[in-house]
Give the backbone structure.
Amino acid sequence: MTLLTSVLRGTVQEIPPIWFMRQAGRYLPEYRDLRANAGGFLDLCYTPEKAARVTLQPIDRYDLDAAILFADILLVPQALGMDLWFEPGEGPRLAPALAEGDAAVLFEQRDIHDRLGPIYETVSRVRAALPQEKALIGFAGAPWTVATYMLAGGSVKDPAGLRAVVYDDRERFAAIIDVLTDATIDYLKKQVDAGAEVIQLFDSWAGGLPEALFDQFCVAPVARIAAALRAHADIPVIGFPRGSGPLYRKIAALPDIAAVSIDTGMPADWAAEALSPLAVVQGGLDPLLIVKGGTEMLKAADQLRASFEGRPFVFNVGHGLVPQTPPENVAALVNHVRGR
Ligand code: CP3
């Protein structure tokens, strides 16, 4: 068992395990080098040799407790038949946008593993190269968040605002969520079979939903995915219903959820009181404090840890590291948390 998996099972550690969302990526010069010689971001994701190297880059640089598979949450809708590309400077695009278009493409029988096979190979390559004591985290987007991109055909300013589309034909939307949930289960089982020891579900756009929609489209699909993974192999699942405030309790209370990752806006003391009795807590240092660095960053890290003293806790950020993060600040933070 690794330090991360033991804490995710409820062990309290003096020094918490530490990893960061988006610990690989554009803020690292070695990533930008590799990316410049690849055919683009998706080419990186689908080339196991390169994706494995990118996954391991932050592990080579810092003393982290886990690697997270380098891939993207939008590979699942692509495997279901949607067109996916990245518009430079604008972000992801998916076509056809399902808010207006026909969702029939999603309901055609197809083998998602044809497309996703290289991702499983990346997982097994990373597991083979990773030191024993470090955990490998696999992931997927939670269905609501992935569906917002599918409805809009890409990123939108206010994903919760898509509820107008949901109310317009709730049954059609529920069917889309069901297809996504099934595909996500199949995808994650294969990641586990290939060597992933922890799974995180990114529900980055779970914030701002009324409770009834949150229950139907965030809690229920995440519960179904976590239960299916538990039945398949007993590995810890981390939920990340970013921005959902007090509704975090509903994800933390799910029987098959081991941990919740708290976002930047969540008060740590509230999380320790309300969430720690229900699940292990991970997170939620402001990633922009790591851009700033220095004593302000280190003090905030100490405060965060103090809130969870005597409770199982995984050190992480409240949302992914941003491209302008100086890598030396990450190194200083890791050393500080480790007591060096
Ligand atoms: O945490 C990790 O390091 C693992 C890899 C990972 C990526 N994306 C790599 C990536 C993970 C876990 C994701 C998840 C993801 N992808 C989410 C959920 C988490 C979050 O940040 O909210 C979302 C919403 C996406 C969709 C997506 N992919 C967006 C909005 C973007 C940014 C587009 C842009 O140009 O900024 C991506 C691209 C992406 N995914 C990059 C990386 C490293 C940047 C790719 C590049 O240009 O090199």
About this structure: The chain has 15 helices and nine strands. Residues 98 and 104 are 10 Å apart (CA to CA).
